[in-house]
Structure formats: C-alpha cells, structure tokens
Design goal:
By secondary structure, the protein is mainly beta. It has one domain: Beta Barrel (Porin). Helix content is about 10%, strand content about 60%. It is built from 1 helix and 9 strands, in the order αβββββββββ. Strands 1-2-3-4-6-7-8-9 form an 8-stranded antiparallel β-barrel. A hairpin with a 5-residue loop joins strand 7 and strand 8. It is elongated, with a radius of gyration of 17 Å.
C-alpha cells in the first residue's frame, strides 16, 4: 500500500511540475521601519529571482538581492508563497487578484528570515504585479526587525 501511495503522490507531483510556469520576478522593497539598535542604515532592497508557479496555489523562487545600505551588499534569496486557489475578486471583472502569504530567507553574512503577506494582480496571462509587506528577523542587528513595503513584477 505504501508503494501505491508513494507512486500516486510522485505522479501527481510530476504532472503538477510539468504544468507549472517559470518566470523572472523583479521586486523593490523600501524599509519603512527599523529598530533603534541598528548599526547601519539600510534603505532598500532590489531583488532579481526566478519564480516557479505551480498550478495549485504555490510558487517558489530563488535569486539574488542587492541591499542599499552604507554600501551595497549582495545576498542569495529563496522563498515560497501560498496563494488562494482562485482569485479573491476581479477588478473591472477582468483583472484577477490573489492574496498570498509567504516565507523566505536571505543568506547574508548572517541569515535573515522573513514572513510576507501580499496581493498579486493578474495584469495579463503572463504579467503579474505584486504588492507586499515583509518583516526580517536575524541575529545580525543590521537586518533584524526591519519591515519593508515592496512592489514586484513577474513576466
């Protein structure tokens, strides 16, 4: 029975993978809140990633992040987002809007983990616009407890 269940899960996962879509994901985040204990001034973050969107309410992404602080710093970034199965509503009856929650990590000199919430607008079948909020958590005071507002474009 275990082999049958495993085979069924692998088959469904493989078919979901084959039906998904790869796309570039570019986003910018502006820091709007940081703790008073911070030792450097981080003002914003530019992200360039590749996103894989599964057909069933999930996407994963990975790429690089450029931090605008006292100097420029680069990190690797990975994350996942969980969307509602169907659009929450439509703008003008044509543009679908999906809310999502996500989790991710930036691999700096110290790892910074973040939860995120946002909404995704389906501008066209291949172009999507994201608006989101993230809160970074880290052992490094330069990145801990930073809250950002962001906007992203996937095409």
């Amino acid at each position: 029975m275990k082999k049958f269940v495993t085979a069924a899960l692998l088959t469904s996962a493989t078919s979901a993978f084959a039906a998904g879509q790869f796309s570039p994901l570019i986003s910018y985040e502006r820091v709007y809140s940081e703790p008073s204990t911070v030792t450097s001034e981080t003002s914003g973050m530019l992200n360039a990633a590749i996103e894989y969107t599964f057909p069933r309410s999930l996407s994963v992404y990975g790429g690089v992040q450029f931090l605008q602080a006292d100097g420029t710093e680069t990190s690797a970034q990975v994350g996942a987002r969980f969307y509602t199965p169907s659009p929450l509503f439509y703008i003008n009856g044509q543009m679908p809007v999906w809310p999502y929650i996500g989790l991710g990590a930036n691999l700096l000199s110290h790892a910074a983990y973040y939860p995120e919430i946002g909404i995704r607008f389906g501008i066209s079948p291949n172009i999507r616009l994201d608006a989101f909020v993230k809160t970074y958590n880290s052992n490094d005071l330069d990145y801990d407890k930073h809250a950002t507002l962001g906007i992203g474009l996937s095409f």
